[in-house]
Amino acid sequence: MKKTKKIVEFPNLKQRLLEKAMQTMKEKKFSEALQLFEQARENEYAYAEVELGMVVCYMELGQLTEAKNRCKKMLREDIGDYFHVLQIYITILIQLKEYAEVRSTIEAILEEDKLPAQYAQNFYQLLEFARKMLPSEESVQMEPDYGDNDQEDGLNLLHDGTVQKQYELIQMLKHRNIRPLIPDIQKYLEDELKHPVLKTFLLHILKEQGWDKKTEVFKMGQRITIIPADLKSGEEDPFLNKIISILEDTVESDNPTLFEGLKEMLVRIHTVQFPLPFIPDKPEAWAAGLHSAGVELFGLDTGEEELAGDYNVSTLEIKSVTREINKLEDFSYLRL
């Protein structure tokens, strides 16, 4: 009787298979990458990341219906970063010219409790675009159109309106001279009950319009005095760029999808935190904390001790920063 041969897996085979799939996709060899993702899927490794990789491959290969169905399944089963997947899903729908589905999907999302701040404006614009593309729909103005006569009534919504009305009014202020409205804006920025993300949007408007007077902001339990014109945007912030640089060195080559997800998370928490400094003032700790939060989100298996070694920080620092990231993430959603 012949002995059955025992199959022994090579160490880290599943991880290396995924890395090869990612690299092949990066090289735009989408058919080959798809086969590798299929193998990784059979090995039940990093399920969310594998599914998203397959969606991207199907998109690039022109198999949009298959990509759409897989995206829809990911959304239905809450696989991966929901709003990142949703953006891809809506992109596919637009390519398929399924504008009614775009409209109904976004309208359903806007009726739910939470919407990430960095997606809000994009979703409103896509909704307006979808409505315009539908022959039975009349053009819809997404932003309130306040004339000079009712400007004062409109500004009341900045203080007393719903979060959605406040958001819409702030978007409208982008196209107006805000100097006559500074007292109202200052009052809003000092109100501890107002949403920190909406305060960030207002500060960006003040910066863009060159407001160079001292301005007080109360945010996240802290009071700070700043000059909006002197504020650095995320792209100009050396601390944020250092975090991204560390993540590039540690994550990007092995896992580009995770790297992009961590950058999006950094944008979200910076939108909440702005213009407050990140504490601790240690980019390695924030990079490690983001990585820790990200691997949990993507369903990957990386321990804190391993991350501590990779980023040369303590596990205590990682835990502390990860708690802060989770808190900021909770505030990064707008209840519209």
Share of β-strand residues: under 5%
* CATH-level-2 architecture of the largest domain: Alpha Horseshoe
Distance between the amino and carboxyl termini: 70 Å
Major sheet: size, sense and barrel closure? Answer: 2 strands, antiparallel
Unreliable stretches covering 5 or more consecutive residues: 1-11, 137-150
Q: Please count the helical segments.
A: 16
Q: Tell me the overall shape.
A: globular
Estimated radius of gyration: 23 Å
Strand order of the largest sheet: 1-4
Helix amount: 55-70%
CATH level-1 class of the largest domain:
Mainly Alpha
Helix and strand content put the structural class at: mainly alpha
CATH-derived topology of the largest domain? Serine Threonine Protein Phosphatase 5, Tetratricopeptide repeat
Number of domains: 3
For CATH, the homologous superfamily of the largest domain is named as: Tetratricopeptide repeat domain
SSE string, helices as H and strands as E? HHHHHHEHHHHHEEHHHHHE
Can you count the beta strands? 4
Average of per-residue pLDDT values: 83
